Amino acid sequence: MTQYASPNGDNVDGSWTNRTGGQGALNSNIRKDTGDGTYIVSEDTGSTDTCVFEIQNGDDPASDSDHIVRYRARSTDAMWMGVLPLTVSLYQDSLDPEDNPIWTNTNNSLATSLTDYSFTLSDPEAAKITDYDDLQLWFTRGTVMMGDNIHITEAYFEYPDASAPPAPAAVAKNQPEAFIMFVD
Question: Which residues have CB under 8 Å from 148's CB, separation 6+?
């Protein structure tokens, strides 16, 4: 089984807005399976722009493998100067997020049409997570050409389900006791 942790709270919106230009509760626009009709957008104004989301709580999995950050995004390229870079990061808030991302990746080749992206954490990166109830997704729009923008329609963190504890050793019930006798 797999756990999916979508954004469920805004920490910082920056200049990011929803599709109608509103701010606040941006997380509801990019949860898993929301579709392309809702999205968040950030326009290049000459400086970078970051939004930070708390993500849903989850159970600590039994494995450090198969931890994947997934998002669906696009960048405009209105003046053919190149698409905007998007840095996506996973932080654990209590681990000093300003200096210590669990994982980070800058995508310098966003498509100009909505495209699914995913990045798998290495086992050592996933092992840094000590509290699955304290995770954040950060999105930072870079800058290339003022007026271009980035849309994100979906984002979530996927990782294995917590495994069931091992079953205790079976104890036989109603079995006769063994009797051993030694005769000389």
Answer: 43, 44, 75, 76, 77, 78, 79, 81, 83, 84
